[in-house]
Amino acid sequence: MVVKTGVVGLDKLLDGGYPDNSIILISGGTGTGKTILSLQFLLQGFLQKERGMFITFEQSKDKIIDQCARFGWDFEKYEKQNLFRIVTMEDIGIANILTQMKSNIEEFKPQRMVVDSITFMSLSAYSAKRLIDLDRTTMVELYEASRENSVSSEFDGLIVRKLLIDFVKILQKRKINTLLTSEIPRESVWLSRDTFSEYACDGVLLLKSVAMGTDLHRAIEIVKMRNTKMKGGVYGFDFQKNGIKVNI
Ligand SMILES: Nc1ncnc2c1ncn2[C@@H]1O[C@H](COP(=O)(O)OP(=O)(O)O)[C@@H](O)[C@H]1O
Ligand SMILES: [Mg+2]
């Protein structure tokens, strides 16, 4: 059994789609298309009448709905049909994040899920180190605090891995097909594809963008995929009128 990715060329590269019951990491720099690729994964589910949940630490519901509308995807319609649920974590105290996720999963019983992004989620590891009041600190405050204290080296530790691995275990137990996005800062190695993901995820896709002259070229690399006869290499992709298409 495979799970269609929602992206035509990508299904072909993956011998049909993601493996069933898998947790896939979508890594890449900012603006490389991680959020859009993930929304397209949920859209594919709606077309098959599968419930999809989008958990965001980064954008408001309005922004997400608007982004979808630009590709002609009517996520409000799917919400009304009880196929789509969006959970925004922007203003939630860190101690409550896992609880919130679990209760939304129990209630909605999604078959597909996206967490955008675990970069923000893992900031709670930082707070554990610094003994910040978890109940009263929001993700945004924490993110700002971590930036002021240039935290990247502190992240490069066991605490981050432990938190994320525990989180992935929760997802695996419930057999929800999940995409986790992660932002890779250029100068930093924490949360890179060979630290966290090698342990915890079933697959890793890497999105890249390269400026050449006045053009921005986009590319996708399948770094790893469990149980899949995948095609290796780096492939170009484009944003088309109705979403991302991988060129193979
Ligand atoms: N309707 C569109 N047509 C073409 N490109 C788009 C469209 N909407 C967004 N993009 C491109 O998508 C990129 C952002 O994608 P996004 O998934 O939000 O990235 P990420 O989540 O990796 O930061 C931007 O660089 C933008 O150029
Ligand atoms: Mg994004």
Topology:
Layout: E1 2-3, H1 8-13, E2 18-19, E3 23-28, H2 34-47, E4 52-56, H3 61-70, H4 75-80, E5 84-88, H5 97-108, E6 112-116, H6 118-121, H7 123-130, H8 139-148, H9 152-155, H10 158-174, E7 177-183, H11 193-200, E8 203-212, E9 215-225, E10 234-240, E11 243-246
Parallel strand pairs: 3-7, 3-8, 4-5, 4-6, 6-7
Antiparallel strand pairs: 1-2, 8-9, 9-10, 10-11
Helix pairs in contact: 7-8, 10-11
The structure holds adenosine-5'-diphosphate and magnesium ion.
Adenosine-5'-diphosphate (ADP) binds at residues 28, 30-36, 70-71, 239.
CATH class: Alpha Beta
Please give the share of residues in helix.
25-40%
Q: Runs with pLDDT <50, length 5+?
A: 150-157
CATH topology: Rossmann fold
Helix/strand order, N-terminal first = EHEEHEHHEHEHHHHHEHEEEE
For CATH, the homologous superfamily is named as P-loop containing nucleotide triphosphate hydrolases
Structure in words:
The chain is α/β, with parallel strands linked by helices and 248 residues long. It has one domain (2-246): P-loop containing nucleotide triphosphate hydrolases (Rossmann fold). It has eleven helices and eleven strands. It has a nine-stranded mixed beta sheet, sandwiched between helices. The longest helix has 17 residues, at 158-174. It starts with a strand and ends with a strand. The relative contact order is 0.21. Mean pLDDT is 82; it is low at 150-157. Adenosine-5'-diphosphate is lined by residues 28, 30-36, 70-71, 239. The site of adenosine-5'-diphosphate (ADP) has 11 residues, from helix 2. InterPro entries: KaiC-like_dom (IPR014774), KaiC_dom (IPR010624), P-loop_NTPase (IPR027417). GO terms for molecular function: ATP binding; protein serine/threonine kinase activity. Keywords: ATP-binding, Kinase, Nucleotide-binding, Transferase. Its EC number is 2.7.11.1. Pfam families: ATPase (PF06745).
